[in-house]
Amino acid sequence: MQYRIYLPLGDKKDPFMKTVEEFNENKICPLEIAVSTISGKWKIPIVWQINAGKKRPSEFLKGIGKVDRRVLNKQLNEMMADGLLIKEQFNELPPRVEYSLTPLGEKLVEVLWGLNDWGKLFLEAKT
């Protein structure tokens, strides 16, 4: 039986299908892909901010702290390309933009809560 796995590789706007055999042949690890996807310095804080109800870039800048607007925009664009966020632009003055999590991004929140719980256990073990 041959399974098909949907995995965006290369150009993130043009994902393609890979078979399990190709997966194994190229030694692609789903965990490495997942960690790579969220490895930007501000990506996890952005997800937490959106999950907490904040939607606008100005709210992210206030809630995250020392992030530069240019870096924030770059990481938001990467997360949209990865399918974690949706950007909604409103046709009004002044211009307004809001971000929300996709179903894939909401799944990431569940994973991050589990990782948060593991972090608590790790801290307890270290003290």
Keywords:
Arc Repressor Mutant, subunit A; 127 residues; globular; alpha+beta; 2 domains; two-stranded antiparallel sheet; disordered N terminus
Q: What's the story with the biggest beta sheet?
A: 2 strands, antiparallel
Proportion of beta-strand residues: 15-25%
User: Strand pairing plus helix content: what structural class?
Assistant: alpha+beta
What number is the mean pLDDT? 83
Could you name the CATH topology of the largest domain?
Arc Repressor Mutant, subunit A
Rg over C-alpha atoms, rounded to the nearest angstrom: 17 Å
Report low-confidence residues grouped into runs of 5 or more.
1-16
CATH class bucket of the largest domain: Mainly Alpha
CATH homology superfamily of the largest domain: Winged helix-like DNA-binding domain superfamily/Winged helix DNA-binding domain
Brief summary:
54% of the residues lie in helices and 16% in strands.
